[in-house]
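tool_call: predict_structure(chain=1)
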Amino acid sequence: MRKVAVVGCGGSGKSHVARELGRILDAPVTHLDAAFYDDEWNALPMDKFTDVQRELVAQPRWVIDGNYNSTLQVRLEACDTVVLMDVSTVAALYGIFSRQIRHGAGHKRNGVHNRIHWGVIKYVATYRRRMRPRVMAKIEEFGSGTDVVLLANRRQTHRWLRKVAAEQS
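tool_result:
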């Protein structure tokens, strides 16, 4: 496991898993929200965002977290492992609100890029029905030869991270 794409709904635990994997694998971690948004939440133009990701995936080792379905192909074609944070809608909604309470709004150095508004709530609430099938189709189309890890809840996630850590020791 040298090149890992962590995908899933907002609030699912992508950033936490990416940080832990980066520590376990001794690999640089990139949170795509940090690459896509500046401090005032202005988005990078999509062509430049795609170029940034191409530079990131050209590195020998990495962990990248973020969904960004429009550019997911870039990461899928380069990774050896995809971790899909496949938590329930309730767990993801809990995740975004508890993150807001724990960290507040704004950009944090630990990969937390927190901004709750109606669009974010709607995206999280409809992710499993609308976005998950699209992500799964892209994984199937562009992720051939990659290991796919589906993590459905926090307990399973913690167990898997402990297993990965033990394998790396």
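agent: Strands lie at 3-8, 29-31, 62-65, 81-85, 106-107, 113-114, 147-151. Proceeding to next step.
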